[in-house]
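[recover] target loaded
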């Protein structure tokens, strides 16, 4: 993998880890449009998480060469983003801990890679076990790990993350539980419940323009958010529709030290009467100028991280 590819992958992980904070309309009125006290709930950095995302610490993986375990750990981080799971390599204090064992056995053609994952809660009790296998056609009898490449590693990570998402409360294919709602997502959940229900019956959601984004962010962020909301079952409206809810994006950049800059994305949710229901905010520190060109997968990651908070602010009929 060349330096540019590693750089893009790193940025995707950074942006996907942006924290979300959804504020109710009443809270917005009390703190001047959503800033102030709401900012205290924001987390930043590559290990940040968005509301409702179970935190899973990844313990050292046993049985595979160091090169494979490092790549697999990072592949789990990426695979978890689309499944509302936050994998934290080597971190402590998470909701769960993932411990894995891998075995490579020579086959007639290549090698077979078997994996077993045990997930324990913060008290050490096992919650679930995930196991499976994949094949590496290029493996040899003398060294079955030799033929394992990034494709097989990503396959293991994706299968593992999909199963965990189904087993753990709060995963993309799972459902929220009181324990998850009591985590950092509590602000967003409380906000959604507290806001008044608008009288007009909406005809859909309009994703309006994004202002202030460098590079092609104005266009790519809108496109990415539309795709994500549509995937999550939100009815989208076009510019000619009336009686719609509107989502507007505002991007702000500010200087930081050591050749970096701070980025903040505010997604405002506005009802058909023009009243702001709340704001979903994301922020992080990135290398200066790294978003001056095409956003690509970074826009998809940012939209994916914001979508859950935006949907919480929308009425269920949207």
């Amino acid at each position: 993998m060349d330096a540019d590819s590693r750089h893009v992958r790193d940025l995707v992980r950074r942006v996907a880890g942006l924290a979300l904070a959804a504020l109710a309309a009443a809270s917005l009125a009390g703190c001047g449009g959503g800033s102030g006290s709401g900012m205290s709930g924001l987390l930043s950095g590559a290990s940040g998480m968005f509301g409702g995302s179970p935190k899973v610490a990844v313990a050292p993986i046993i049985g595979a060469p160091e090169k494979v375990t490092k790549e697999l750990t990072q592949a789990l981080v990426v695979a978890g983003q689309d499944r509302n799971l936050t994998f934290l390599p080597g971190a402590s204090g998470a909701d769960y801990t993932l411990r894995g064992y891998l075995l490579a056995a020579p086959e007639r053609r290549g090698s077979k890679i078997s994996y077993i994952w045990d997930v324990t809660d913060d008290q050490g009790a096992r919650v679930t076990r995930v196991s499976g296998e994949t094949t590496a056609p290029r493996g040899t009898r003398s060294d079955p790990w030799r033929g394992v490449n990034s494709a097989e590693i990503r396959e293991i990570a994706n299968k593992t993350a999909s199963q965990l998402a189904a087993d753990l409360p709060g995963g993309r294919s799972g459902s929220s539980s009181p324990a998850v709602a009591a985590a950092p997502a509590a602000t967003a959940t409380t906000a959604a419940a507290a806001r008044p229900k608008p009288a007009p019956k909406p005809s859909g959601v309009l994703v309006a323009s994004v202002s202030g984004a460098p590079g092609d962010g104005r266009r790519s962020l809108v496109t990415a958010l539309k795709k994500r909301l549509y995937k999550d079952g939100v009815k989208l409206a076009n510019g000619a529709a009336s009686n719609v809810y509107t989502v507007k994006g505002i991007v702000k950049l500010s200087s930081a030290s050591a050749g970096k800059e701070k980025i903040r994305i505010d997604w405002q949710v506005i009802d058909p009467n023009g009243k702001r229901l709340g704001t979903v905010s994301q922020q992080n520190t990135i290398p200066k100028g790294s978003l001056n060109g095409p956003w690509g997968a970074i826009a998809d990651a940012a939209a994916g991280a914001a979508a859950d908070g935006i949907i919480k602010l929308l009425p269920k009929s949207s």
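[recover] notes: The helical segments are 3-16, 25-30, 66-81, 150-167, 178-181, 186-194, 217-231, 297-313.
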